[in-house]
Design a protein that fits this description.
By secondary structure, the protein is mainly β. The chain is built from 2 helices and 8 strands, in the order E-H-E-E-E-E-E-H-E-E. It has one domain. The two termini are 25 Å apart.
Length: 164
């Protein structure tokens, strides 16, 4: 059986941004906002959507730092006062199941081998299918319409335990 684990961004690397003022954020190409609806502000740390009235930061993030031609970056949202989601093996966060997704499958050298656009409800099977190719080392999940990065998926074993 093929197993996978979805990994969010590390909260310890980004939450300092909420301590910066507007000018400092602007210098970094980031913007502090208030969510005005319950969807549309998916946090890449908690892997949940921000709620109405919640403070978020929209920033430019280098999500694929590799020596291959497939280096990539783009806009992401992060929520204030959240910790990185700790997902179980084969667990899929709800925020990924209700949207059109782009999944991009890479080798251990950062080379793209396959890309698909899928309905989020089909994500589990799409990940399993992608990992049947032994050459695929990891997968990035993006919003298909906006192109924004959501998270990384790695092949794993059922015995794999989450780290604390």
């Amino acid at each position: 059986m093929i197993n996978f684990q979805i990994t969010p961004l590390d909260h310890t690397l980004l939450t300092y941004l909420f301590e910066l003022d507007e000018k400092e954020l602007q210098h970094l190409g980031a913007v502090k906002m208030t969510a005005d609806r319950n969807t549309g502000y998916p946090c890449r740390i908690s892997l949940t959507n921000a709620g109405i009235g919640e403070e978020v930061i929209l920033l430019h993030y280098k999500h694929h730092q590799t020596d291959s031609p497939y280096q990539a970056s783009g806009p992401i949202f992060i929520r204030n006062n959240v910790k990185s989601a700790k997902l179980e093996v084969n667990e899929i966060p709800a925020m990924l199941t209700d949207k059109l997704l782009s999944i991009r499958s890479y080798t251990n050298k950062g080379m793209l081998r396959k890309a698909d656009v899928i309905d989020g409800k089909e994500l589990r099977q799409a990940l399993i299918t992608a990992f049947t190719n032994a050459e695929i080392n990891y997968i990035h999940i993006h919003s298909a319409k906006e192109g924004c990065y959501h998270c990384t998926v790695n092949r794993t074993t059922p015995e794999h335990k989450k780290s604390s």
